[in-house]
Specification:
Its main location: nucleus. This protein has 6 helices and 6 strands. It has 190 residues and is an alpha+beta fold. The chain has 2 domains: 7-34 and 41-140, 2-Layer Sandwich (Alpha-Beta Plaits); 152-189, no CATH class. The strands form 2 sheets. It has a 4-stranded antiparallel β-sheet with strand order 2-3-1-6. A two-stranded antiparallel sheet has the order 4-5. A hairpin with a 2-residue loop joins strand 4 and strand 5. The longest helix has 25 residues, at 165-189. It is extended, with a radius of gyration of 22 Å. The N and C termini lie far apart (89 Å).
């Protein structure tokens, strides 16, 4: 017989994004190990990795949010050990996310509880526990250097650079094509 179900989700559970990434990594590692006979230790469960996590991933930030604004807001929940702003891989400009590392796991949980879902620069920010920042993760993973979600966005979002990158490129190509057609038509008229 099971005990009573709780209606409140625990904050120290991994997000769906984290679980999908770790499951994908496990499948790839399993495929690589199938050819080898050596037995390795079982991989650590994603929930176990986050039990003592002190780092938070903060998403949906405006491109214009400064490091000082983030530090001021997130220091209300505890002393910040390190703050790493997410950057566009090519232009090295902010691209809408950051990592906030606290000294204790409880401070990170408090931050998720009290600050996650609040507004910063007129945007609702989201927070997730992160297993820890490693060098290279501060850069966007999109083809154009920023975040993937900003490449395919179809609506106008001033806080995240206007239109999505794919739409911007498509419009630029259309303008170039129109300019070439105009030049061709002008050359024929002369």
């Amino acid at each position: 017989m099971r005990g009573p179900r709780t209606t409140v989700e625990r904050l120290d559970q991994p997000s769906a994004y984290f679980l999908n990434r770790s499951n994908k990594r496990r499948r790839i590692d399993k495929e690589h190990r199938e050819g080898e006979d050596n037995s390795s230790s079982p991989e650590e469960d994603p929930v176990v990795k986050l039990q003592n996590a002190t780092t938070l991933y903060v998403g949906n930030l405006s491109f214009y949010t400064t490091e000082e604004q983030v530090y001021e807001l997130f220091s209300k929940c505890g002393e910040i050990k390190r703050l790493v702003m997410g950057l566009d891989r090519y232009t090295k400009t902010p691209c809408g996310f950051c990592f906030v590392e606290y000294y204790t796991h409880q401070d990170a949980l408090d931050c998720m509880k009290y600050i996650g879902g609040t507004k910063l620069d007129e945007r609702i920010i989201r927070t997730d526990l992160d297993p820890g920042f490693t060098e290279g993760r501060q850069y966007g993973r999109g083809k154009s250097g920023g975040q993937v979600r900003d490449e395919y966005r179809e609506d106008y979002d001033e806080g995240r650079g206007g239109l999505g990158r794919q739409i911007q490129l498509q419009r630029m190509r259309e303008r170039e094509r129109e300019a070439r057609e105009f030049d061709d038509n002008y050359a024929r008229l002369r």
